[in-house]
Amino acid sequence: MFKRTLPFACFYAAFALGCGGNEKAHHEHEGEHHAAHGGCLNALGTCENGHAEAKLEGDVLMVWFVGGGSDTDKAVRIPDGEITLAVTIGGEKKARTLVLTSKPNELAEEKEGDCSRFEGKADWLRGMTEFVATGRVTFKGKPQDVRIEYPKGYDPD
Amino acid sequence: MIVSLHKLVVEFRVGAERIQVLDMPSWSVDDGEQVALFGPSGSGKSTLLNVVAGLLAPTAGSVIVCGRELSRLGEAERDRFRAAHVSYIFQTFNLMQGYTALENVLVGAAFSPGRFHRDQARALLGRVGLSHRENYYPSKLSIGEQQRVAIARALAKKPKLILADEPTGSLDPRHAEGVVSLLREACREHGCALVVVSHEAKVVEVFDKRVDFLKLNRTLAGVGGVS
Amino acid sequence: MRFPTLVLKSLRQHWLSTALAVVSIGLGVALLVAVASLREQTHRNFVQEGLGVDAVLGPKGSPLQITLNALYHLEEMPGKVQWTYYKKVLGDEVVESGIPFITGHSYAGFRVNALDERFFTEFEYLPGRHFSFRPEDGGRGRMFAALDEAVAGAEAARELRIELGQTFNPTCGVNPGDPVHANDAIRFVGVLAPTGTPHDRAIYISLKTFYTLQGHGQDVADMAVNEEHREISGAYLKIRRIRGGAMHPGIQDLKYNVNQSAQAQLVIPNEVLPRLFSIIGWVDRVLLGIALLVTALALLFLFVALVSALRERRRDLALLRCLGATRRTVFGLVLCESLFISTLGALLGLAVGHGIVALASDYIRVETGLQFTSAYVTQADLYVLPAVLVLGAVAGLLPSVQAYRLGVLRNLTPIS
């Protein structure tokens, strides 16, 4: 019995280690994700596709659209002039609407319709500690769902 | 008495065998006395001197030197005892080759209590007629001069007892006579006892007290001694 | 004859092996001390508050290259920055002030940099320290005023033996064989007091002087008056401070914003240089490793020397025992010899190590303008002596034990 059990045990151990290793390797790049503005990173689709970095200051939510993988300090410009987010706070059933307008980075020669930074302001944002916001943007020329989980960030992987 | 031995036994272990070298019922040397021990090679004379000097612990018996029972002392205590009271002169002088004549005399008192100055060492060298050789290394000294340095070194610590094992063994007869005479005079001047071991008749006959080692060591009454 | 005398006598008796052991330990320690000192001083020099610069606005390219060119007068700038863009950055709320500069010219191996004259009045090359022309500080003359005037850093002036009033023709480039502005004679009117920074190794002219050098042509000359077309190599930026003197946290946002631009980038020297050190950190680790290996080999040599010396000294040690030395005494004798050699080697190594640093300091100062000093004390200086002593004791332990166990009678056999 031992003779049969041992190979299985080794195989299982290798499998478990391999899976665990793979899983670890897949998320290893997470360690390299750095939020350039100190906000939380939310994957757009997959980590490698891009991120929306979200930061809440007072009653203003700022969102920067940046690259995927380790390119989280590289801006990705969005052609949309506005982004509408449905914001769910805590256990509320009804989502609130927040409109983000573009805030072009002048130093990067951005303009409306070619901008990576958006801001939305609402009184009810003040003092918020946790929320989920969803919406849709045109990211890298394609429609892309946006999911922001504040403050921990969102990574479907 | 400066030396008093009683029922002294010395045995060596050679492999599984025990070999008896010394079996002496009793022997003594008085303060300031000068004694010559004679006997054939291998009769155990050097072993006796080593025991008296505290270099060798007896297997049994009592060894009292300068009032101390050496058989009850540990090795380090015997070393310190020897440093203070007993000097040893060898057949082959055993001078330290890297030291000058003066330094060899100085090292003679290196482990003794009290200070021993260079001037005192110079005086001793002068006493043995080697003032002019104080900065010479042993390799530059004649055989006779080397032995005289050894005598000066032996006197450095102001010992109560000097043991000399075949002190003239490496010397020609002319030098031998001079060295023995010097040794005896120096011991007399310093008031220390002298035990000389020798197989040479010319050396032994100048001593007032002469002891036949064959009669002293009961081991030799049997098969014979150990070399 | 006392115990220390016996130790010294013994060492003298085997003076050759003693000397070799001391020298080899000294060599290992010298390497350790020198490498540690140069390493620490290099680190300190290169990361000392970015040499007064909070950030450098430069062209797109390698941040390291920009830092080395802007602060250390090494390398070349990988491009140009538009003056209009510089002004835009200057208008950001976190930027307190900026000093534009142009690099790329040279004279007799020293860089000729054009910059705004506020560099000499407002710029703090180290916290609280401004440039000076005052004789009591070691300076001479004054700042440039006219178009044909220049000032020199202290090291450049010393090496080129610059006298006030002397003229030079700048080279359009930093490489041998680059063309010289033969028709543009510029006069030295000042020598800066030494700062102990790479700024000592450059020659400075005004921006306008640069633009109006005859050899540059009309397009460049227009830049002197036309901001729209004006280009610079970069600008030193001073960032606003918040409470406690810390840099405004908005610098990271500014850096992000500028770096998204196709025109320029913002480089923070204090971020770039530590990264450089972590990359090349292996170099000094290897050097330290070599130094440790040499020291270990030296101590091994000491061990071998003591063991072989013991074989020759059996008779002498037996004689000392016969004269009354205890086993502990001869043990101590051999151990003390080892400790003495180690101490001497360590002290020699400390002296030689600092000597190496002194020699290297001169060379480094001449080549880079950075100040190194042989008087710098590192942790290696503090630990090397006790460490070598401990290791010397270890090296001497076995021979000492052998001496302890020496048989007196066995080793006092007659010599032929």
Short description:
The complex is a heterotrimer of chains A (157), B (227) and C (416). Chain B has 227 residues and is α/β, with parallel strands linked by helices.
Could you walk me through the main structural features you see in this protein, from its secondary elements to its overall organization?
The complex is a heterotrimer of chains A (157), B (227) and C (416). With 157 residues, chain A is an alpha+beta fold. Chain A has one helix spanning 2-28, and strands at 40-44, 46-57, 60-66, 82-89, 96-102, 117-121, 131-139, 142-150. Chain A has an 8-stranded antiparallel sheet with strand order 1-2-3-6-5-4-7-8, with no helix packed on it. Mean pLDDT of chain A is 82; it is low at 1-30. Chain B is 33% helix and 25% strand. Chain B is built from 8 helices and 9 strands. Chain B is globular and about 50 Å long. Chain C has 12 helices and 14 strands. In chain C, strands 1, 3, 4, 7, 8, 9, 10, 11, 13 and 14 form a 10-stranded mixed sheet that branches. In chain C, strand 5 and strand 6 (129-130) form a beta hairpin. In chain C, helix 2 packs antiparallel against helix 10 (269-323). Chain C is elongated. At the B-C interface, helix 2 and helix 3 of B face helix 1, helix 10 and helix 11 of C.
List the helices and strands and how they pair.
The complex is a heterotrimer of chains A (about 160), B (about 230) and C (about 425).
Chain A: H1 2-28, E1 40-44, E2 46-57, E3 60-66, E4 82-89, E5 96-102, E6 117-121, E7 131-139, E8 142-150
Chain B: E1 3-14, E2 17-29, E3 34-38, H1 45-52, E4 60-65, E5 68-69, H2 75-85, E6 86-89, H3 101-107, H4 118-127, H5 143-156, E7 161-165, H6 173-190, E8 193-198, H7 201-204, E9 209-212, H8 213-216
Parallel strand pairs in B: 3-8, 3-9, 6-7, 7-8
Antiparallel strand pairs in B: 1-2, 1-4, 4-5
Helix pairs in contact in B: 3-4, 3-5, 4-5, 5-6
Chain C: H1 3-13, H2 15-46, E1 55-58, H3 63-72, E2 81-82, H4 83-90, E3 95-107, E4 110-115, H5 118-121, E5 124-126, E6 129-130, E7 140-141, E8 149-152, H6 154-160, E9 167-168, E10 186-191, E11 202-205, H7 207-211, H8 217-222, E12 231-232, E13 234-239, H9 250-259, E14 265-267, H10 269-323, H11 327-368, H12 379-404
Parallel strand pairs in C: 4-11, 8-10
Antiparallel strand pairs in C: 1-13, 1-14, 2-12, 3-4, 3-13, 5-6, 7-10, 8-11, 9-10
